[in-house]
Amino acid sequence: MDKLVVNHSMNLKGEIRVSGAKNAALPIVCASLLTADELVLTNVPQLKDIYTLEKLLGGMGVQVNFKNDVMKFNASNVTNLVAPYELVKTMRASVLVLGPLVARFGYAEVSLPGGCAIGARPVDQHIKGLEAMGAEISIDHGYIKAKATRLKGAHIIMDMVTVTGTENLLMAAVLAEGKTILENSAREPEVTDLAHCLNKMGAKISGIGTDTLVIEGVDFLHGATHDIVADRIEAGTFAIAAAITQGDLTLTRARPDTMGAIIEKLQKAGAVITEGSDYLRVVMNSRPKAVDLTTLPYPAFPTDMQAQFMTRNCVADGVARMKETIFENRYMHVPELCRMGANIDVDGNIALVHGVEQLYGAEVMATDLRASASLVLAGMYAEGQTTVDRIYHLDRGYEHIEDKLNNVGANIIRIKG
Ligand code: UD1
């Protein structure tokens, strides 16, 4: 297993190009199953999760060609409608093939994703929605088996805001017969990006960007070309790198319009932000101030930025109260940060972060994707050297992270395991 050795590096300065969003690319790659024509995606990040999905779709008979950041799909000859446990267990988002497969082929077998490090993460809302559209669903030997002659439009009110749940039902509804209304839908920019791509493929979705999506089902979808939206979480992580190291970073190809809550919290911390439609500049000249936050569905502060923002609060001036409301077990970075000298008290989903002036390099272990990023950030601030072990999590979601940070003055070395 690879490790990252992160050396103390302050005052990062320069430009970093933001990649396409992993969480937009994953559902949009699955949307390729909805058409027999060619789907072409640009700005696709080269990440382990995307390769996992490429393998999954390849096993189903989809022809996939992935060069640089362009991915081309042809799903005219799908021969296998099963998403096996071996792949789903490594990446929960594989469940996103469920909606497209049932919608286009009337059948799917998808392994239940099982528990994961940051919480139980059930898929009951995906199942409830498909059943409302007329699918017959059974759980058999750890697999969700779904059958339907043709899905029918339905009025579905989701019990909670779920990102992949909304995406799965959206992809099912576009080929269903009649109208589907999805209430209490997720409004994340990645859901919006999927909806725009589906409309380019001939779907009829309205209410995009709101919590009520209305879908008029069509008989078939055609090919399209779509550019994946910028990754707001990657951009937010680099913005925090600028804040923590008291640096000056310009994030090119960013989409600040999708980052409102992140930008607001950074400004409260004392960062000076300049933004345009496709860039964000973050300058920090002093020690950041502590900032309270609560994670909630978009447009509020994202859970996927909680760990990175906690690292920032760890070295801030003051005490911050942080509350995680999306996942029940998303403070696994806390003990690792404390090993580096952070002062954090956790009580249930509340973390009180008492800012300290100094962190110290240590050997730490990455426990999930965003927790890993928080440890790399802490390592840059810490005195001495920090070794972050198990960085396969990081490689799932950050494209060339050490190269991008080293180009602006960090000193991070990958040790191949
Ligand atoms: C997606 C993102 C992930 C992000 C999360 C929340 C992808 C590939 N992943 O994950 O990075 O952290 O959104 O923004 O886009 N829930 C249920 N039943 C369901 C579905 C969800 O109880 O059927 C619960 C979950 O346990 C969780 C909450 O709803 O507590 C939100 O989860 P959800 O939005 O579904 O997360 P994911 O789509 O898995």
Question: What is this structure, in a nutshell?
Answer:
The protein is an alpha/beta fold. It has helices at residues 22-30, 48-60, 85-88, 98-105, 124-132, 163-173, 189-200, 232-244, 260-268, 306-314, 333-339, 369-381, 392-397, 401-406; strands at residues 3-7, 13-17, 38-42, 63-67, 70-74, 82-83, 107-111, 136-140, 143-147, 155-157, 179-183, 204-206, 212-216, 224-227, 248-252, 272-276, 279-283, 293-294, 319-323, 343-347, 350-354, 363-365, 385-389, 411-415. 31% of the residues lie in helices and 26% in strands.
Bound molecules: uridine-diphosphate-N-acetylglucosamine
Task: Describe the sheet with the most strands.
Answer: 4 strands, mixed
**Count of separate DSSP helical elements:** 14
Span between N and C termini? 4 Å
Strand-residue proportion: 25-35%
Q: Biggest sheet, strands in spatial order?
A: 22-23-1-24
Average pLDDT figure: 96
**Helical proportion, percent range:** 25-40%
Report low-confidence residues grouped into runs of 5 or more: none
Radius of gyration: 21 Å
Give the overall shape.
elongated
Overall SS class: alpha/beta
Q: Got a strand count?
A: 24
